[in-house]
């Protein structure tokens, strides 16, 4: 499988894949908000609601996807509220016409408000429980969080992008290299244990519904430091982030110890994410869904702002790490 997009994933292909799994479809296919993969919600013949996920071709191997599924099942067995893939014919990973796919029960709800401290308390407990399971054994096939490799791949994709205005190429080069160098230097200063992570804990990957709060989408599960699953839940000013971190870590520590050295990873993880996201957009620009969803990527103003954002991230790497407040 060499293609990297979904150019031949037609409705007929999707229906054929479900038919091969003996799943009848009694509704239309509702495309859900996913750019990395293709995800569709539907009703089966018994009017039960499902979600089918088609993985982006050529991104993960079968073994890597299976390990994601196994981790989700392990978490569910430990009563961590994740949405795990449904087993059909004894398997969770299926294939059809070159695509890899999995079926999930549909879970309704709304994205969480991470600025709410009560919600952060709940998320901290959930992540503590998730990491408690994640620390039991390492991944064998999933990638580890390797800043050097991730940044190198992202920079290559950025440099190959045809969307960078000519007059901004030199200013971009002038800030990108020192930012990457400073980020790698910051990572090198903090050596902490790694564990199996969710890997992409932004607010959109938590849903709050009538049955409580659920963790979604382990697509980016990898081996890395615990802070990778915590920092994305922080927002606002430095003081606000320190207040949020105090609530989050206090709840987290009900299930897992928190290594305070990881506070020094927040700024480099933020910088890594920023460069990675730009590289992600650049690498996938040939996917027709991306110019439609991110038209600003091709606008000069976006690249001007990106250069300013990189400068702010470089400055943040030289600031003291967030403090872990106590007695809140």
UniProtKB/TrEMBL annotation:
It is found in: Cytoplasm. SUPFAM superfamilies: Protein kinase-like (PK-like). One of its GO terms (molecular function) is protein serine/threonine kinase activity. Coiled coil: none annotated. It catalyses: L-seryl-[protein] + ATP = O-phospho-L-seryl-[protein] + ADP + H(+); L-threonyl-[protein] + ATP = O-phospho-L-threonyl-[protein] + ADP + H(+). One of its GO terms (cellular component) is cytoplasm. Gene3D superfamilies: 1.20.1270.170, 3.30.200.70, Transferase(Phosphotransferase) domain 1. Residues 34-264 form the Aminoglycoside phosphotransferase domain. InterPro entries: Aminoglycoside_PTrfase, Kinase-like_dom_sf, SrkA/RdoA. The active site is at residues 200, 217. Its EC number is 2.7.11.1. Its cofactor is Mg(2+). The record marks 34 as: ATP. Belongs to the SrkA/RdoA protein kinase family. This is Stress response kinase A. It comes from Gallaecimonas pentaromativorans.
